[in-house]
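As noted in the main text, all predictions were made from sequence alone. Below is one such record, for Orc1/cdc6 family replication initiation protein.
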Amino acid sequence: MSSPPDPSDMIRDARVLQDDHLPREIVHRHSEMSQLAGALEPVVDGDKPQHAVLTGPSGAGKTCIARATLDRLEEQVLDVHTAHVDCWLHTSDFRVLYKLLESVGTTYDIHRTTPLDELLLRLEEIDKPYLVVLDEADQLEDPGLLRQLYAIPRVTMVLIANRERDLFDPLDSRLQSRLRSSEHVAFDKYSHGELVAILSDRVEWGLAQDVVTDDQLDRMATAACGNARDAIGILRTAARRAERDGATELRTADIEAAIPEARTELRQKSLDRLSSHQLAVYEVLRSGGELMPKEIYSRYEDRVDEPRSKRTIRTYLRKLEQYNLVESEGRGPSRRYEIVTK
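Prediction:
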């Protein structure tokens, strides 16, 4: 049993300051949540839900809304399974299928040598509707897995990606057509006011009373540039600094120091998630400075034993840019990339 917080502690609930924490009440994104719920809610009446695709920039609330929607449906329907799989961490067919079966408790006798067909057969034998969130679905090593999951009647997919094109382009034309007819929920960056509201909610539940001013919330929201993950990271880092120094309220110096520190921390988290090939592309840029795509690919080929295609490397570069690991200037083949250092 955990002890009550010390009255002098600034941070009352550190979990609330994590960017993957699911808040008690969703602040904003109500229309997006309603749209996704509308696609999935037929399951409440025993009907077939609709597949859904969620797209938008990093930190726009896609994962939060998907998780919250599934949680609410589970409260309404007893006979339904749900799962959330991060396809950036679990990129192979085996890992994704294992995680899906693990969520329904049928993995005790599965080994790495278990044939994929057997794993798919077990999914087909599940006797309840299965709502599956595949986060970062464009990171799958074999996009053909989506076609196999689509063919399982009780499985309904919620696919999350930054860009629809990156998700759909590797798919065969038939599956593209089917997924384009699914529910598409588009997310934009948060507005400044929305980020302030999100931060205010985290402060209310995670910090002691009256330790953050409205002007400080405004400053953190401005620095985050529409990205909720960045905003929460800045708040978390600033609060840790203040508490470490024994301060009773957040100071301007804490926030100004937290802005670059939080960005560095988030950048490292993204780096830790990269596959070996994505990391090789990043290392090419880190050692080579500003480079054009053809130069990047040439140096990447020299670093790995089984290089991916040029098209795949272009996809990697877009992903690295979306997660603020690299930045680019120019267009087309003459575009130049370099790593983000600030």
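The chain has three domains: 30-186, 191-271, 274-339. DSSP finds 14 helices and seven strands in the chain. These features were considered when defining construct boundaries for the mutagenesis experiments described in Section 2.9.
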